[in-house]
Amino acid sequence: MHSLPHDHTGARMKRLRLERHLTQAAVADLAHVPYSTYTKTEQGVIAASPHLIAAVARALRVDVATVTGQPYARELRADELDILIRPIRQSLDLYDLGADSDIAPRAHQLLADDAEALLVAVRAGQIKQTASQLPGLIQEATTAAHAAPGRERWLLLASLYRTAYDVASKLGYYDLAGLSLARMDWAAERGSDAIIGGMYRYMRALTYLRDGEYRTGERLVELGLRTLAQAEPSRERSVVTGQLHLGAAVMAGRSKDRGRADGHLDEAELIANETGEAVAVHWLAFGPTNVKVHRVSVLAELDEYGQAAQTGRGVTIPQGWPASRRSHHLAELARAQMWTGDLGGSFENLLLARKAAPQQARYHQTVRETYAGLEAARRQLPDSFLSYGNWLGI
Fold it and tell me: Average pLDDT in the 312-326 region?
């Protein structure tokens, strides 16, 4: 079920509820959410929080994407991004077919440079450029790995599968994101790299965070930490370990466990004080700044929006930080400000999120839900608010 013109998450929740012949009270009870919160969300009076969306999806036994309306087919078609998905999917299907005799791979370093460039591009918000170049590079790297198997070649292929995950998840193709992760794990095992194995479990845990399966996500974090313990001590290992703690903190926050969330944030902060800013280490953007940004996210997940907004305003993003991460943080800050009634500040940060990474912001669920929350109060907002909605496709 895709998003329709003038559609919103609450409207989709209502359609799904009526299809199952359930009352609002029944869905609120099944989802373990307050009745008033559910009804106001369904009516579009308040924005749908990630926690509520996941809870309702579980209650109605549908995917989260069915509730959110992802992928946003109409906008993807208008941006000519939908036609780039099938080639990526096809390139992932070649993983076990061996070397292709019609492909003559370039030297490994040239392939590695191109793979690194795509990691940089997707974090700069250049999703369309990345999606266009990715399938051919995956095919070339697949043949290279099978023709002359070796650790570096398998890990190069794992990196490209990770980029496929980045593209698919940012555009809302979560089935393709899951397939990309499975391929990443397959290649990482052949490269025998515990650190990449830890990263895989971090990203897989994020898929369970989105689906509201917090216990499974926590188990994956624990497995990732055990996997990383097998690697030799290094800054690289510390960075991935710290990032796992950050992911676990958001998971705990969304499950409303303040103690566990603070514990993981504190662990990540200790590690970040040792590593310093390590933006380019596997392009995880780990470091003291990322810990501060995640504190804002965790506070918002705990529904402590006033403190989240106050903390977020005190975060200074350094030069050279990936545009995609900057945009995501601004969207999170806008969400917190919207809930505190700072409508002008919220919309200003939505504009900044768009400026930082327009292709990402257009398909970002938090951006859309925050805009929906502001829409009821649009008389207090400038004329550019409606223009922003047209850009989103709402």
Answer: 94
Measured CA distances, 316 to 305, 312, 332 (Å): 19, 9, 15
Across the chain, mean pLDDT equals 93
Looking at residues 373-383, what average pLDDT do you find? 75
In which residue ranges of the chain is CATH 1.10.260.40 found? 1-69
Per-residue pLDDT averaged across 3-25, rounded? 84
| Cβ neighbours of residue 194 closer than 8 Å, sequence gap 6 or more | 227, 228, 230, 231
Crossing angle for the helix pair 323-340 and 305-313, to the nearest 10 degrees: 140
| 346-370 pLDDT, tens digit each | 999 999 999 999 999 999 999 999 9
- Beta partners for residue 278, in sequence order: 286
What confidence category does residue 108 fall into, taking pLDDT thresholds of 50, 70 and 90? very high
- Judged on CB neighbours under 10 Å (0-12, 13-18, 19+), 32 is exposed
The pTM of the full predicted model, rounded to 2 decimals, is 0.92
The confidence score (pLDDT) of residue 3 equals 42
- CATH entry 1.10.260.40 includes domain 1-69: yes
Which band of pLDDT confidence, cut at 50, 70 and 90, is reported for residue 223?
Answer: very high
| The 3-state secondary structure of the chain, one letter per residue | CCCCCCCCHHHHHHHHHHHCCCCHHHHHHHHCCCHHHHHHHHHCCCCCCHHHHHHHHHHHCCCHHHHHCCCCHHHHHHCCCHHHHHHHHHHHCCCCCCCCCCCCCCCHHHHHHHHHHHHHHHHCCCHHHHHHHHHHHHHHHHHHHHHCCCHHHHHHHHHHHHHHHHHHHHHCCHHHHHHHHHHHHHHHHHHCCHHHHHHHHHHHHHHHHHCCCHHHHHHHHHHHHHHHCCCCCCHHHHHHHHHHHHHHHHHHHHCCCHHHHHHHHHHHHHHHHHHCCECCCCCCCECHHHHHHHHHHHHHHCCCHHHHHHHHHCCCCCCCCCHHHHHHHHHHHHHHHHHHCCHHHHHHHHHHHHHHCHHHHHCCHHHHHHHHHHHCCHHHCCCHHHHHHHHHCC
